[in-house]
Amino acid sequence: MQSTKLARTVGVSALALTALATPAMAEAPPAAPASHVTVKQAGAGTPAATPLSTRRLSKRCTRPRDKRFTVSYSPGRASTTFYFNNHCSHKSYIKIKVHVPGTGNVTACIRVNPRTHGRKKIWHVGGSVGRVRLAHC
């Protein structure tokens, strides 16, 4: 019973306040949020170094010639997951240079078996992924 009386009182008070509002208040544009962070979505207009961008690499197979070895990845803060699809009839490799603070540059190598697809996560906490090549390690 008490809660319904309180709700009616609050509802009537809010209605009275909106009736007293001036037309200038109604036409005022909404205030911008006090934030200094600008968020952009990944796409053609963003630079390649943003963590939201996905990078793709591909290489033509030596056997069969009409097939390809494809890799995609998106560098993160602590790790990077490499997604691969090897349509070739031979092994293919992903060569990754990783900079880790305290140890310097480290080279990681992912060997992908023939006719295989999957993913592999490389951890680089506090570091970053440098150059990625589709070359023999």
TrEMBL record:
Keywords assigned by UniProt, alphabetized: Signal
Region annotated Disordered, chain positions: 36-61
Residues in the signal sequence: 1-26
Protein name: Uncharacterized protein
Source organism of the structure: Actinomadura decatromicini
